[in-house]
């Protein structure tokens, strides 16, 4: 733990000290800072630290790539920042103003910052729930579990609860991102999936105005906009109300206004837009799914480097909510395994003991969906292995797209994604197509890297850095 505390202090110093940190969250491999300003030379200084793979500035965030030990480093920094605004537990408006992206940032940067801020906190639980759904589908397909049994039902509820109550979860994270009271926006999300609303029968009205009854379970877009509107209204109300009563009157007014408005206007409108988005994506995908597979399989890891991969996350989740399946995630599996295979090729070819150890751990992480250690520590510094991983990912993605493989639950793109590809009707040709495309990417990138990707003079480029 001492090692992580030391690294945490060095990172805090590198980003300009505690007072320069607005917010801090982490994903599977990265510390994601929002800074007051980026100090000159901060990226180079932090890159040089032992335990840091690289630094990426994207989407208004200063991202420090740590790798598999990111949660330990995050906890060390969090303990050091305790009591500051960056980790404040305040629940009033403005407690966390993570939505205040620089006005000079592009719309794409703002969108990526918004998506990552809302979905990052819940991503690991989403992945776990999706993996459990996949295993249940596998057990049923192999006749190891009866879907009518109480054992199956208990595990199904465990895997489905997060998605069923997704509006509540996203209400909380969106409320924090938009700088309002997260428990207030979570309550608005709870109203969307409340049993009383779900049991209403047509015609339902609110003061004589007809209500459009929609099942908002697992929905994504309506609650995000409702949370934004609630936070906006709360911020407007807070300074205008008497200090002695505003802590409860501001949320009260928001509940009175936003919940009916959501059922009357926001919900139906954004549900329609959600269906439009899913239909539009599916129309584009159906034109040439094999081409979509080649493209995404080849460029996905490049998107990861620049943080652009967050742009597809809400589309994939929306597809699952609207269509019941998604075709984006399967196309990414060969891309992930392509980098894992390239790292395996380096492991087999290199004579450098330090690089061999790093490549070996990167292969394991890559197979389980974490490719940053392979990219920043092994394949990208050597250049050719990264390129071979992208080429193999494109070819494997083409096969997956050609057979229009789907996933039926959300999860981190990893070896476990194969279980999520199993359709409700059982194992079919799409599962075997996904396996073939994935194995092709893994084996081809490994073979190309082993033959052509590593210098044969026994020397390793100095740019290869131990994360």
Could you describe the 3D structure shown?
This protein has 467 residues and is mostly helical. It is built from 19 helices and six strands. The strands form two sheets. A four-stranded antiparallel β-sheet has the order 1-2-4-3. Strands 5-6 form a two-stranded antiparallel sheet. Strand 3 and strand 4 form a beta hairpin. Helix 8 packs across helix 10, helix 8 packs across helix 11 and helix 12 crosses helix 14. 48% of the residues are buried. This is PTS system beta-glucoside-specific IIBCA components. Keywords: Cell membrane, Kinase, Membrane, Phosphotransferase system, Sugar transport, Transferase, Transmembrane, Transmembrane helix, Transport. It comes from Tatumella ptyseos ATCC 33301.
Describe the main β-sheet briefly: 4 strands, antiparallel
Strand % is 5-15%
Oligomer: single chain
If you average the pLDDT, what whole number results?
87
Lateral arrangement of strands in the main beta sheet:
1-2-4-3
- Strand elements, count: 6
Q: Write down the Rg.
A: 23 Å
Low-confidence stretches: none
- Please bin the fraction of helical residues: 55-70%
DSSP summary: helix tally = 19
Q: How many structural domains in the coordinates?
A: 3
The geometry reads as globular
């Amino acid at each position: 733990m001492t090692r992580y505390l030391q690294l945490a202090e060095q990172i805090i110093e590198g980003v300009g000290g505690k007072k320069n940190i607005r917010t801090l969250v982490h994903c599977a491999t990265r510390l994601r800072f929002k800074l007051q300003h980026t100090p000159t030379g901060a990226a180079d200084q932090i890159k040089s630290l032992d335990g840091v793979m690289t630094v990426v500035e994207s989407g208004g965030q200063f991202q420090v790539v740590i790798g598999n030990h990111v949660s330990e480093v995050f906890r060390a920094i969090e303990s050091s920042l305790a009591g500051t605004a960056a980790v404040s537990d305040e629940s009033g408006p403005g407690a966390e103003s993570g939505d205040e992206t620089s006005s000079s940032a592009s719309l794409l940067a703002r969108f990526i910052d918004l998506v990552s801020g809302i979905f990052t906190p819940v991503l690991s639980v989403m992945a776990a729930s999706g993996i459990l759904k996949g295993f249940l589908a596998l057990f049923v397909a192999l006749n190891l579990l009866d879907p009518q049994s109480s054992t199956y039902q208990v595990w199904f509820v465990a895997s489905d609860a997060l998605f069923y109550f997704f509006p509540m979860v996203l209400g909380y994270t969106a409320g924090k991102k938009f700088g309002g009271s997260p428990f207030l926006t979570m309550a608005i999300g709870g109203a969307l999936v409340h049993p009383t609303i779900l049991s209403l029968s047509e015609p339902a009205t609110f003061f004589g105005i007809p209500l459009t009854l929609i099942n908002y379970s697992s929905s994504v877009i309506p609650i995000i906009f409702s949370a934004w509107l609630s936070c906006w209204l709360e911020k407007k109300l807070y300074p205008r109300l008497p200090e002695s009563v505003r802590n409860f009157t501001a949320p009260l007014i928001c509940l009175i206004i936003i919940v009916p408005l959501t059922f009357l206007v926001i919900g139906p409108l954004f549900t329609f837009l959600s269906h439009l988005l899913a239909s539009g994506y599916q129309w584009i995908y159906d034109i040439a799914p094999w081409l979509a597979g080649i493209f995404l399989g080849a460029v996905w890891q490049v998107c990861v480097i620049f943080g652009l991969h967050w742009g597809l996350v809400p589309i994939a989740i929306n597809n699952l909510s609207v269509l019941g399946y998604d075709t984006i995630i399967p196309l990414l599996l060969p891309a992930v395994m392509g980098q894992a295979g390239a790292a395996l090729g380096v492991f087999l070819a290199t004579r450098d003991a330090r690089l061999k150890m790093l490549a070996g751990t990167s292969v394991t992480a890559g197979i389980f969906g974490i490719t940053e250690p392979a990219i920043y520590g092994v394949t990208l510094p050597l250049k050719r292995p990264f390129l071979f991983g992208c080429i193999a990912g494109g070819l494997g993605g083409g096969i997956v797209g050609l057979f229009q493989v789907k996933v039926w639950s959300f999860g981190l793109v990893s070896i476990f994604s194969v279980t999520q590809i199993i359709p409700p009707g059982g194992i079919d040709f799409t599962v075997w197509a996904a396996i073939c495309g994935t194995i092709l990417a893994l084996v081809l990138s490994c073979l190309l890297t082993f033959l052509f990707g590593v210098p044969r003079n026994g020397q390793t480029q100095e740019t290869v850095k131990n994360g």
